[in-house]
Every structure is written in C-alpha cells, then in structure tokens.
Specification:
This protein has eight helices and twelve strands. By secondary structure, the protein is an alpha+beta fold. It has an eight-stranded mixed sheet. A four-stranded antiparallel sheet has the order 7-8-9-10. A hairpin with a 4-residue loop joins strand 9 and strand 10. Helix 2 packs antiparallel against helix 3. The termini are far apart. Bound molecules: aspartic acid. Aspartic acid binds next to strand 8.
C-alpha cells in the first residue's frame, strides 16, 4: 500500500530572537508549546483529516498558549483592550473567513472559520463579528481572560516611549508573536490560518495583514498555502502571501524561490521584516524569515520533524 503524503508547518512569530538573550526555561516552554501544536495537527493529518481542520486546531492550540501574541497572550491596545484578528483559507475552493478587532472571542480562528462556513461574507469586524458569533451560539468571554502581566508591562513601556510596537519592540528587541499554520493533507488539499493580537499600543482600529486574505494568509491548491508574521503594514503593501502564490503560478518559481524572493527581496525593499511559513501542493515545506529568529515547527508523513527558533 502506498502511504499518502501529508505535511504541516506552524509559526509563533518572528523577530529579534537571540539565543544569548533567551533563558533556558523559557526556551523549553516555547519548544514544548510548539511541539504540542505540531502534534495536534500531525495527529489530524495522520488520521486522514483535512488540511483545513488541521490548521484550525493548530492555531487554537497556539491561541490558548499565553506565550504567543494571539488569543490568550494577545498584546494590549492603547486603551488597554485586546483587539484580535484572524483568518482561515481553504486552497480547494479559495473559500476564506476572517475577523478583526474582536475583543471577547476566546479563539478568533474559530470565529473566522464560522464566518467562512456560515455567512456569505469573508471579513467581519469588531462588535458586528461578535454579534455574529453570539447569533451562532459562540460564547463571549470576559476580557480579563486575555490579561497577562508580561503584555501589560509591554504596554506600559510602549506608552512611556510613546510608540506602537510589534509585540515586543523596545530598542534591540523586536518580536512578532502572531501564530499561524499551513497544511497539506492526504487528499492533496492545502489550507492556511493565522491569528494575532496585532501591535502593542495600537489604536484607531488598526488592523494588520493577518486577517487579510492575500496579505498575511493565503491558500490555493494550484500552488501553495502561506501564513505570515511581521510588520503587518509592509506585508499588506507587498501582498506577501499572494505574491508567493503568484510567483509560483505566473513566474514558474518553485516554493523555495518564491518565498526567498518575497522574504529577502520584496519585503526588505520597503523595510518589511518578519517571515512566513509555506507548503506547496507536493507537500514541500518552506520556513523563511529575514529576522534573527522565528518560532517554528514542521513535520511530514516521511517522519521528518523539526522545532526551531533561531537562524541556522
Ligand atoms: N503581522 C502582525 C500584525 O501586523 C504582527 C505579527 O506578526 O506579530 O498585526
């Protein structure tokens, strides 16, 4: 019997992540969290589950972990709230669902999936998105759930310095803690999902690339599935995730060449920093970034597994 192929990749954000600045306990916690999320997705794919189901569950696992800037670990806005963005996309029919600026939804990626499955829309925002959630039986959660001391301190620092920062952005330290997953299932289908709290001290309803199909999240069975992390404004202006697809489909580049061009040429040309994870329609995996590190993990049906943080 020929074993059917599948593969999975996930990220927990990119940025100035240096080994000499990391404490061993924290590094262990990150690796454990990445491993748990990877295992959750690999189990689904191994049982023949869909790529769409796998990316949703992987992102839920990461949203529930306070280490990452999504769901439970989301950063604070200028006014001291949490406004979360998420998207999910199926490469099979280009169906997509997304939400932005939600404050009371425990797992924004689940709401994005609900928008995709149960509404004629793609992107719902703020109180409207939350009303939609409630009308479909999804519970609201007390905003206190999202409080973490570390993020609160980051907001105080950002307020003092009067700047809007990406997760962790004081002086030498820049980290984008957004989470995402891409998968290729045994049916040959691709899917992508991304979830984020955005930027510390953000205001005026700022929305990043993560919930915008084509910018921070994209999937198309003809080419690849992509989830991005980094300076959202620059990823939007580069239409980063779609660019990987377009370079493969229209310029004939392979997955690695297309990701390299986006991450090391197109984004830097406008000072965009961060990274992305991508899988093509043969199950090849690419994890690329132009920062010092990216929390990431990957696995496939051949038994290759990796959990990495720093540059190689
Ligand atoms: N891309 C996200 C945003 O701009 C931030 C991140 O990757 O952490 O909202």
């Amino acid at each position: 019997m020929v074993m059917k192929k599948y593969s999975l990749a996930l990220h927990g954000g990119a940025g100035t992540i240096l080994k000499n600045q990391m404490n061993p306990d924290l590094e262990e916690q990150y690796k454990k969290a990445l491993n748990e999320a990877l295992k959750c997705g690999m189990d689904i794919l191994d049982k023949g589950g869909s790529a769409l189901h796998a990316v949703e569950e992987v992102v839920v696992t990461l949203e529930d972990c306070p280490l990452f800037n999504a769901g439970k670990g989301s950063v604070f806005t200028h006014e001291g709230h949490h406004e979360m963005d998420a998207a999910i996309m199926s490469g099979t029919d280009l169906n997509a669902g997304a939400v932005c600026l939600v404050r009371r939804i425990k797992n924004p990626v689940r709401l994005a999936k609900l928008v995709m499955d149960s509404s004629p829309h793609v992107l719902l925002a703020g109180s409207g998105a939350e009303a939609f959630a409630r009308s479909h039986g999804m519970e609201w959660i007390d905003e206190k759930y999202f409080y973490t001391e570390q993020r609160f301190k980051q907001l105080q620092n950002a307020l003092e310095e009067n700047k809007i920062s990406l997760d962790h952005d004081h002086s030498s330290e820049r980290k984008f803690g957004t989470v995402g997953a891409v998968a290729f299932d045994t049916q040959g289908q691709l899917a992508a999902a991304t979830s984020t709290g955005g930027m510390t001290n953000k205001r005026w309803g700022r929305i990043g690339d993560s919930p915008i199909p084509g910018a921070g999240t994209y999937a198309n069975n003809e080419s690849c599935a992509v989830s991005c992390t980094g300076t959202g404004e620059l990823f939007m202006r580069s239409v980063a995730a779609f660019q990987v697809h377009a370079l493969m489909k229209y310029a004939g580049l392979n997955l690695f060449e297309a990701c390299f061009k986006v991450v090391h040429e197109i984004l830097p040309s406008i000072e965009g920093d961060g990274g992305l994870i991508a899988i093509d329609n043969k199950g090849e995996i690419c994890l690329d970034f132009n920062t010092e590190g990216m929390y990431r993990a990957f696995g496939n049906s051949d038994g290759s597994i990796g959990i990495e943080i720093y540059q190689r």
